[in-house]
Amino acid sequence: MNEKIKVNNLFFYYNNTDKPAIKDISLTVKENSVLALIGPSGCGKSTFLRCLNRMNDEIVGSKSEGDILIDKLSIYDPKYNLSSLRRKVGMVFQKSNPFPKTIYENIAYGLRINGIKDKHEIDHTVEKSLKNTALWEEVKDRLNESALGLSGGQQQRLCIARTIAIKPQVILMDEPASALDPISTQKIEELIQDLKEKFTIIIVTHNMQQAARVSDETAFFYMGDLIEVNKTDKIFTKPDMEMTEKYITGKFG
């Protein structure tokens, strides 16, 4: 598999402090794979995730060192267009956040602001995105109803549909199933497996069983450090680092 993302010696600092929230992170993510980020709360997983689409840049007083390359191009290069980065690297948040619009408009809106005007193309993309998230059969007769009337699990799948409609290459997921019931969680996990055929996915999860089920590789973060990254089955059966083993067997965290 080709290398999609390469992170070199990444540090990130909040609020003009000298203490980095993440320090000296280096890893690679292969194309059309799923990387799970695990570790205790506050260990830097979400901070790292938000560096990948430079969302942390919006925090006043923050700064980063090191580099992130996507398709061998540095996203910190002054010539790198931030809008095109956000189109290429989509984001799905922990809490589903549909727009207070119709189901149809939740997807169509993003297409329009990206310059797509043709109604036939928008209709086709809305349907395709909903089918790709296994939502079409559930909502095809309700497209003009408010998205806020959907269940939590449906709202989260709609947010994923909205993300993939603008054809990103990478999808970042920050605990996308943590607020969902077990059946909705299973649907999201099955969806991740389907989506990796078209996208590269990085998911933050507190649920280690979920990481084991959905990911090809797993990275263990602790106190801002990347302790270990390896194939998921190795991380969960025979990790290289004693600290990783202690965490996954519940001895701390």
Q: For the largest beta sheet, what order do the strands appear in spatially? A: 6-7-8-3-9-10
Strand count, sense and barrel status of the largest sheet are: 6 strands, mixed
Shape: globular
Span between N and C termini?
Answer: 33 Å
Which terms summarize this structure?
six-stranded mixed β-sheet, Rossmann fold, four-stranded antiparallel β-sheet, 25% strand, single chain, 253 residues, 10 helices, alpha/beta
Topology:
Blueprint: E1 3-13, E2 22-30, E3 34-38, H1 45-51, E4 63-70, E5 73-74, H2 82-88, E6 89-92, H3 103-113, H4 119-132, H5 136-139, H6 152-165, E7 170-174, H7 182-195, E8 200-204, H8 208-214, E9 217-222, E10 225-231, H9 232-237, H10 242-248
Parallel strand pairs: 3-8, 3-9, 6-7, 7-8
Antiparallel strand pairs: 1-2, 1-4, 4-5, 9-10
Helix pairs in contact: 3-4, 3-6, 4-6, 6-7
Description:
This protein has helices at residues 45-51, 82-88, 103-113, 119-132, 136-139, 152-165, 182-195, 208-214, 232-237, 242-248; strands at residues 3-13, 22-30, 34-38, 63-70, 73-74, 89-92, 170-174, 200-204, 217-222, 225-231. The chain has 253 residues and is α/β, with parallel strands linked by helices. The chain has a single domain (3-248), classed as 3-Layer(aba) Sandwich (Rossmann fold), CATH 3.40.50.300. A hairpin with an 8-residue loop joins strand 1 (3-13) and strand 2. Helix 3 (103-113) runs parallel beside helix 6 and helix 6 runs parallel beside helix 7 (182-195). The two termini are 33 Å apart.
What is this entry, summarized?
This protein has helices spanning 45-51, 82-88, 103-113, 119-132, 136-139, 152-165, 182-195, 208-214, 232-237, 242-248, and strands at 3-13, 22-30, 34-38, 63-70, 73-74, 89-92, 170-174, 200-204, 217-222, 225-231.
